[in-house]
Design brief:
By secondary structure, this protein is an alpha/beta fold. It is about 45% helix and about 20% strand.
Length: about 375
Amino acid sequence: MSESITELIRRTAPEELNDHNLVPQKVVEGVLYEKKPARTAAGKVVDKLYNAWITLDNPKQYNSYTTDMVKGVILAFRAASNARDVNAVVFTGAGDKAFCTGGNTKEYAEYYARNPQEYRQYMRLFNDMVSSILGCDKPVICRVNGMRIGGGQEIGMATDFTVAQDLANFGQAGPKHGSAAIGGATDFLPLMIGCEQAMVSATLCEAFSAHKAYRLGICHDIVPALKIDGKFIANPAVITDRYLDEYGRIIHGEFKTGEAAAAARKLIKEGEIDLSLLDEKVEALCAKLLATFPECMTKSLEELRKPKLTAWNLNKENSRAWLALNMMNEANLGFRAFNEGNKEVGREIDFIKLRQALAVGTPWTPALIESLIPGKGK
């Protein structure tokens, strides 16, 4: 009579296993690491198996990541990847406003601006963060609890699956704020949504809805999060039904405009945000991943990530160098404008005045930068 799996484990499991982490897991301010019990598709808790939740915990600044937080994310993904008892990784943000809006603009503007050598070292950490996601031995789910913008979109696209609440917006910041989306977006977007839509997102920097993200194939699934009178409804700010506009174009997932948009914003403000359906959808996906051979899963991930990894590894180092040098002029101006501006004066520079100045050969000087900071120039 064959012995039970419980008896086999008790008899053959070694008493002590090697630790493959570089350093012991530690608490880093702004990054939460938690192992939550894994569940079956029927909702039954599985003994001694977990899903690792990595949470960006900086909600007051829309979960933008500081230098220390980047280090924390790297350590968390290494820990989750090495954990023998972890089934899948859920990467998310605190609260219901944002998954992540990218690098911390305050830190960028007040520390890294005009210090390219410092920003170059920071970008080494950022590159390692993206690589830690792409190299994780476990499937990674991006739980999009709110905005996924800029660098947040880039680290989100490095994951394997995206599940979003449908009030979330996706997009890049790039040329609107003094940078280029070369922290992953220019590598991943053409692969994931096609060259034309990638061009639109990474150059025009216009945010798009979770519904459009789903249609474009950059999002595995979406769920409603807005409750009105106790019932979930789809994002009222978005056209969710397919129809032909006056030019014969198919519309789906586009933001409403005018009075309809104002009414939608009012309804959202009056309603309740409930992410329970999002959590249910994420747990259901984790349960599906649990019911697979673990090594076959890891090999499948490695193979399916190759297009992303090829593009990423080809470009990440020269991108790091360019981004560092760009801190001397456009990034310096763009990040400072966003950090020092406000609703009254705006957070973007006067792009026309900058282009006019450069057109006649005006050099990049501190005086030029100061003259274009919102509310300071005449």
